[in-house]
Specification:
By secondary structure, this protein is mostly helical. About 65% of the residues lie in helices and about 0% in strands. The chain has a domain of about 70 residues. It has 6 helices and no strands. Helix 2 runs parallel beside helix 5 and helix 4 packs antiparallel against helix 5.
């Protein structure tokens, strides 16, 4: 007799256990992972948020990686390779999130640069205004008459007769009495 020989009734139990194991493995192989719809939706939403944040302008490489991985995830879904699709969707979501963060950073930097330029322009205007306030007033142009004198009227105005209505200067016709040295009346 052998030391390791199976007992007489155990072959039937072994065959039953082996058949049950094969059946469990077969059922487990048929029941693969469920489709990663949530992961795909999250990746797609994150891609859209990255596009809305301006990732095409500020982080085009990262956005491209995210889009490529999402397309690969869609292809894996079509082939019913759900585990691969879930992994690719998660990578796509992470790349899209990175692209969105870089886009926000780029937009913030552009806004800061715009404000710095505006501040520089305003500072220069303020310095020019301060310099103008401290400078003496500019001299009048040389063609203008001195401030105390009036320019002469044109010759056509001098030769024209005065208008009939309005203010006119009348010569003084009343004669002043001569000084009387005799003390009499005039």
């Amino acid at each position: 007799m052998y030391i390791f020989s199976p007992p007489a009734g155990s072959t039937r139990r072994t065959r039953t256990a082996l058949a049950a194991l094969v059946l469990i493995l077969a059922l487990t192989g048929c029941a693969s992972a469920p489709p990663p719809n949530d992961s795909m939706n999250q990746a797609q939403n994150q891609l859209q948020m990255a596009r809305d944040a301006g990732a095409a302008d500020y982080a085009p490489v990262d956005l491209g990686f995210a889009q490529d991985k999402f397309q690969l995830a869609q292809a894996a879904m079509a082939e019913r390779k759900y585990a691969d699709a879930a992994n690719l969707a998660e990578e796509s979501r992470a790349d899209a999130e990175l692209a969105q963060a870089k886009a926000r950073l780029g937009a913030a930097r552009a806004q800061i640069q715009s404000k710095v330029q505006e501040n520089t322009r305003l500072r220069q205007q303020g310095e020019q205004a301060a310099a103008a306030a401290q400078a003496p007033p500019p001299a009048p142009p040389s063609s203008a008459a001195p401030a105390g004198e009036m320019p002469a009227p044109a010759s056509s105005v001098l030769s024209a007769p005065p208008p009939a209505n309005g203010f006119q200067t009348v010569p003084d016709t009343v004669q002043q009495p001569a000084a009387n040295t005799q003390g009499g009346q005039p």
